[in-house]
Amino acid sequence: MTTIRLSELENGQKARIVKINLEGDIRRRLSDMGLVNDAEVQLLRVAPLGDPVEIRVKGYELSLRKEVVSEIEVEPVNTRLVKLAAGKTARISSFGGGTELIRRLSDLGLNPGVEVTIVENHYPGAMLITLGGSRLVLSSELAEQVLVREI
Known about the structure:
This protein folds into 2 domains: 4-76, Ferrous iron transport protein A (FeoA) (SH3 type barrels); 79-150, Roll (SH3 type barrels), CATH 2.30.30. It is built from 4 helices and 12 strands. The strands form 2 sheets. The protein has a 6-stranded antiparallel β-sheet with strand order 1-6-2-3-4-5. Strands 7-12-8-9-10-11 form a 6-stranded antiparallel β-sheet. The two termini are 14 Å apart. 17% of the residues lie in helices and 41% in strands. It is elongated, with a radius of gyration of 17 Å.
């Protein structure tokens, strides 16, 4: 899989740290906070002007300067449901939206840990998925907010 900068992740997306291109005190401080190779991080949000960037690592949140997260190479471990092709199976890992969206998706049976299979994807139109023996049609806007790990 290809590596990207931590700053290039989308809100809610998770990744595994591959390389930290920093030296000295800043690298040691990042290491003390849990930012080490193979650690899983999640980009939570970016401030309106792009700086700082809030991430989650080892169960707690950190705000880091954009120039710091731009020097951390990661390998994404999840992607948006809308990006998967027909025939692919994935497990839901998280959502990119707020509490109202999460409630709506939960009412449809889409919860973290649930396995879904893409039957048809007519991006930018609707997509047809199966979960637990049921078929469900999602708009591309809604599927854009569902983060999954491909199986």
